[in-house]
Amino acid sequence: MAEPSVFSRIISGEIPAERVYEDDQCIVIEDRAPQAPTHLLIIPRKPLVNLSEAEAGDKPLLGHLLWVAGELGRKLGLEGFRLVVNNGRSAGQTVFHLHIHLLAQRKMREQDLAQD
What we know:
Number of strands: 5
Protein name: Histidine triad (HIT) family protein
CATH superfamily: HIT-like
Shape: globular
Structural class: alpha+beta
Helix content: 10-25%
Oligomer: single chain
Strand order of the largest sheet: 1-2-3-5-4
Domain HIT: 6-115
GO molecular function: catalytic activity
Low-confidence stretches: none
CATH topology: HIT family, subunit A
Number of domains: 1
Active site: 99
Order of helices and strands: HEEEHEE
InterPro entries: Histidine_triad_CS (IPR019808), Histidine_triad_HIT (IPR001310), HIT-like (IPR011146), HIT-like_sf (IPR036265)
């Protein structure tokens, strides 16, 4: 069996972390190496490796994680924010426990913005 991820250890209380938000499905902490003035990590309590490992039964959880992002944006008064999910090592994932980065208060460069 694989060793628990750092996020599983934070969720269990083995590693201390200040929680910005938590409920029965997820916790939210500040990123320890922020890439923007506001950089939060929305982490499900369920130890999914990444988004590709999620199953049909995880749809309510995935929707909840997005709802939490919106709720944090409202509560923090963020005018705009970006959500990032790195899925797999080649996409930059370094902690293999699904998490969503919420980044805000840094103007996105034109090359950072997806074009519709």
